[in-house]
Amino acid sequence: MFRALALTSTAALCLLGSACGEGDEQDSLDVQPRDTRSSVTGTHPVRMTIFSTAMLDASPPVNPSLGLTAEGGSRDRLRVSLSPLDCDLTATMTGASTFALNPGTCGWIIPPSEGKFACGITLDIAQGTGGRDTADGRVGVTLNANYRLRCADDDEPFITPVIVTLEED
Question: CB 3.0-4.6 Å disulfide test: which of 25, 26, 77, 83 passes with 71?
């Protein structure tokens, strides 16, 4: 009889302990991650280089301005701009000073000059990563995209996969 009572008590304690343990796990899931976006936010002058196997040489560096701003209503989302390009990009913080670029696009128009037609360039960004190596380090981004070039006199656009690097000057 005592043995049955002891086993029943032990089983009840185990069930009670499991139920309490589940609540603790749920409580830990409810804890919001720390907002570390300020470690990368700001405007950063960068050097942009585009690499492709279809282009014999890397593109000459362009010097846009990389803007990273915190999106409201979130602790880990960033809005990404690359002035003077027209971009629709966001990123998600993955660490204290690192982020993953979400799929999006950047584009710009090359106006006509010296008898050449105007052209439009679009980067269809599939993925990318960025951040700082150290707290006082420079911001950098690497992304994979499809480069699409279409000029007014082209029948079809030129499209090639590229790797784009953005390195803070």
Answer: 77
pLDDT-based confidence at residue 17 (cuts at 50, 70, 90): very low
pLDDT band at 36 (very low <50, low <70, confident <90, very high): confident
| 120 close to 106: Cβ distance less than 8 angstroms | no
Task: Quote the number of domains for the chain.
Answer: 2
- 48 and 112 belong to one structural domain: yes
- In three-state secondary structure terms, 39 is helix
CA distance 80 to 56: 29
Give me the DSSP letters along 114-158: TTBPPEEEEEEEEEEEEEESSTTS-EEEEEEEEEEEEETT-SS-E
Those residues whose C-beta lies under 8 Å from the C-beta of residue 96, and which sit 6 or more positions away, are: 36, 39
Work out whether the CA dihedral 53, 55, 57, 61 comes out positive or negative: negative
Q: What is the CATH number of the domain that holds 113?
A: 2.40.128
CA atoms within 13 A on the CB side of 98: 8
pLDDT in tens, 117-157: 889 999 999 999 999 887 778 999 999 999 999 998 888 99
**pTM of the predicted model, to two decimals?**
0.73
> Residues 9, 89: one domain?
no
